[in-house]
Hints:
Layout: H1 2-17, H2 20-26, E1 33-37, E2 40-45, H3 48-69, E3 75-80, H4 81-89, H5 98-107, H6 125-136, E4 145-149, H7 155-169, E5 175-179, H8 180-189, H9 193-204, E6 208-212, H10 221-236, E7 240-245, H11 257-263, E8 267-271, H12 276-290, H13 299-308, H14 313-329, H15 336-353, H16 355-370, H17 375-379, H18 385-402, H19 406-411, H20 418-434, H21 436-448
Parallel strand pairs: 2-3, 4-7, 4-8, 5-6, 6-7
Antiparallel strand pairs: 1-2
Helix pairs in contact: 1-3, 6-7, 12-13, 12-14, 13-15, 14-15, 16-18, 18-20, 20-21
The site of magnesium ion has 4 residues, from helix 7.
Amino acid sequence: xxxxxxxxxxxxxxHKELDQEIxxxxxxxxxxxxxxxxxxxxxxxxxxxxxxRIDMLYLERLNELLNTLVEEYHRFKIISEQEAIEESxxxxxxLTSPEKSHHLKDxxxxxxxxxxxxxxxxxxxxxxxxxxxxxxxxxxxxxPLYIFGDVxxxxxxxxxxxxxxxxxxxxxxxxxxxxxxxxxxxxxxSSTKKQFSDFNNKFKDVDVLLIDDIxxxxxxxxxxxxxxxxxEVLQQNQKQIVITSDRxxxxxxxxxxxxxxxxxxxxxxxxxxxxxxxxxxILRKKLISETANPELIxxxxxxxxxxxxxxxxxxxxxxxxxxxxxxxxxxxxxxxxNAELALESIVKPKKDKLLNTxxxxxxxxxxxxxxxxxxxxxxxxxxxxxxxxxRQIAMYLIxxxxxxxxxxxxxxxxxxxxxxxxxxIEKITNEIQMDVDVKKDVENLTIKCGEI
Length: 452
Ligand code: ADP
Ligand code: MG
């Protein structure tokens, strides 16, 4: 069996990295692959002790080595001989059927992304509910489904859940997941007629198209044209399209308007950063799925990690892995102090990032000083020109200097919504062209803010 060979290759690799004695105790008798399911390769360890040791100390490295050998993401799960026997008895032998794995391979989906592993909270509930509805009735409830939000908040995960769920329920459905940069690359490569027809055929008979990070189509006009055609055909045939993006369709830049307006035809949902409680739940779920011993990491540690990483789930998960790796590698107890040590080097730079907040405060105070008003008046809801104009200028400068999303800029001005911020910025952009005083103010302030 091919997977046994892969396991042997990985063993050979790790052999080079370990003391002979350690290798002999943990790996020599760990030989058999029990089954492969959902991209997980189950390997049988001779007993519970060996299983736990490999799990705690070497699994992460084994998985790294594994993923240098296979194309699609896979991972190992170590089980004891006893567990293998139990599972065979209860008939839980569930080798992924060849037909199914064939479909999955063509779809580009990663099977680990399932609705079950997605933790729902206030910041993603609407997106989650919409995704489940679309997965239940593709092409019917919301087409396209447009999911947007900042990086690392679960857009790709949720999008892939839809695809996996649809294949799970109906093997005849042809699902295709593609990253936008890959789409562009494939299109550019398809310069000959034959290649182009291959490229096009790929999309022709798709039932569900999942296209990830559509913002990368910006400025790629030919690819936009091509995507537009594909989009039209699929939508006319009631094929489901799911799109993700880092911003609302209306804020996509350098994108033809007939595309962005199509994106708004269906349903747009956003995913925001999870709150503290939600982050702790995500960590708990990760612990359960990734370790043999989730209770090792206590609430104090989870709280510390969740408080330190508040705007990106990928970083949050990375921090948890780092703590686990640090404590096992140096054989330290799982305490909050050790967790702090493990994360020291990444929490500190994050603090430096807070300087960005200081930079924004710098813009706010520079603008307020310049117009002889206070920051709080400037951020307030007051509508007199005395405050409105400086407010608009400050928004304009923040956008120009740091290119933050409108919604984020709104948070510095009493949570104004994205359209208010957008209009303010547009207004100043126009006035700069027409009014020399405005132009002068912007120039003076750009210098005062230290951005020149
Ligand atoms: P995005 O596409 O928005 O940049 P991803 O979907 O790649 O983000 O998510 C980043 C990581 O965080 C992935 O490992 C994903 O599984 C995990 N993740 C994000 N949101 C959740 C959630 N609500 N529950 C569980 N895992 C999540
Ligand atoms: Mg993504």
